[in-house]
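Customer ticket, subject: "Can you confirm the structure for Synaptophysin?"

Message body: Hello, I'm evaluating your service for our small team and ran a test protein. I'd like someone to confirm that this is what the system normally returns, since I don't have a reference to compare against.
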Amino acid sequence: MDIVNQLVAGGQFRVLKVPLGFIKALEWIFAIFAFSTCGSYSGMFKMSVECKNRTESDLSIEVEFEYPFRLHQVYFDAPTCKGGPPERLFLVGDYSSSAEFFVTIGVFAFLYSMAALSVYVFALEKYRENNKGPLIDFGVTCVFTFMWLVSSAAWAKGLSDVKASTDPEKVVDLISACDEEGNRCREVHDPVMSGLNTSVCFGFMNLVLWGGNLWFVFKETGIIAPFMRAPPPQEKQPAPDSYGQQAGYEQDPCEEEEEERVRGEPGECGA
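Agent reply: Thanks for trying us out. I re-ran your input and got the following:
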């Protein structure tokens, strides 16, 4: 407990009030939401097959699927309406690559954000020493920004395909009994996809956060510092001694002698 108190006392938590630390904390939180909403998903939909012979009907065919969405391994049993055993059918598609890629990026972003926050709070001086820390941080932030773009776009496309493959209206077309006249096949319950839609939203929100944080991390590198220096102040010009000098006006010598003559003093022009 004493060690924890010492670490807390020595931490520079004020860095969390500036954009560098505050945005990194948001990245940590949003990464958790991104990979958890996708990686913890499990869904289910229901269909019903009503045969001519009511005894062979199955009015509640449940199909369950979950992350990582290897749908070609998900099967269900449907009646044939011919008096024989039910037929086993499989869903179509394998969308595990885009889903697992998205979750992996989310987990690594979560771990890196947590590590970066620890450095900001407990080793900020070493982080800024020789600009090595900011340069590494900037490079990693660039990589994660690109990865969030790729993974979010890939998972958005994968989710669209998952929705199409788990649409009960399309799945009933796989059941042979539904093609026979007199049998009725219909959907009973659609899968709830709100959690997966949220995961895509969090993916693109992470893209915005990491992309926006590039500027604040780049400022820490000091590369732009020489270009942000204020120009030296200009020296003020001394004030002119008289109105004539200020206007650049010089009086004619003869006019000066005329004034002296009026005062009773001889001048050269009148000689």
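A couple of notes from the result: The longest strand covers residues 42-50. The CA atoms of residues 27 and 206 lie 6 Å apart. Feel free to reply with more questions.
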